[in-house]
Amino acid sequence: MAGTLEKLAKVTAQAVEAHQAGQSDKAERLFRKAAAMKPPQPQALYNLGVFLRQAGKPREALAAFNKVLTASPDHLGALVESGFARLSLSDIELAVGLFSQALEISPEDPDALAGLAQSAFQAGDWERSVAGYENLARQTGLGEEAQLIRIRALLETGRADQARSLVTMLGQARPALAGDLLKAVTRRARGGFSLNEEKLANELGISVS
Fold first, then answer.
1. Is residue 105 within 8 Å of 79, Cβ to Cβ?
2. pLDDT digit string (tens) for 1-58?
3. Would you give the distance in Å from CA 162 to the centre of its chain?
4. Fewest CB atoms within 10 A around its CB: which of 15, 53, 78, 99?
5. d(CA 16, CA 127)
6. What is the mean pLDDT of the chain?
7. Burial of 203 (0-12, 13-18, 19+ CB in 10 A)
């Protein structure tokens, strides 16, 4: 067994080295070699799945993650990665379920929170999306794209004042983001928010033609 683990570690290191060097075909071959070793090692299958998902092969990645989850149903990484693979395939409800399951295991996991917030938004579950982004904001802060989605979700739940405050704060802190902020608040999925676009544009220091 020790010899197998040593060989696995060596092949995995070679795969990572090839991946970092931009040798994708060689990296995939080595990750697959590691995953095919006997007895199967969940970490090797997980590594292969992560590589395949990042390489734009979500269906193949899911096959690897499913094997990991069959052996270890509570494998947090495999649940989260499976969720993102499902998102890329537009399997939104399945993605929501996977991220929710991951958060039952680790309620503060930032990747699971981000995935749930994103997938819930795509599913039209605005309340869950807002909650996810607010939890994530408290933990790690939000990037620009996540902030824009958060604003849209706030508007969809009727929290117009909170959304406007966030728009104003972001517009003042990041002037280059002003155009995207306008799009976030004016191009929404349904009605229920009355916005004076010209006034908002003036507040953000941009012009509206």
1. yes
2. 556 788 999 999 999 999 999 999 999 999 999 999 988 899 999 999 999 999 999 9
3. 24
4. 53
5. 40
6. 87
7. middle
Task: Dig out the tokens for 194 from the structure.
Answer: 């009355």
Report pLDDT for 199.
Answer: 61
SS3 label, residue 187: coil
Residues 46/52/56/59 CA torsion (nearest 10 deg)? -70
Tokens of 62: 């899911």
Where do we find the tokens 């996991």?
A: 109
CA atoms of 187 and 69, how far apart (whole Å): 39
pLDDT > 80? residue 78: yes
Condensed to tens digits (0 to 9), the pLDDT of residues 111-156 reads 999 999 999 999 999 999 999 999 999 888 888 888 888 988 888 8
DSSP letter (8 states) at residue 107: T
> Which pairs from 6-11 meet CB under 8 Å and 24+ separation?
7/37, 8/34, 8/37, 8/41, 8/44, 11/37
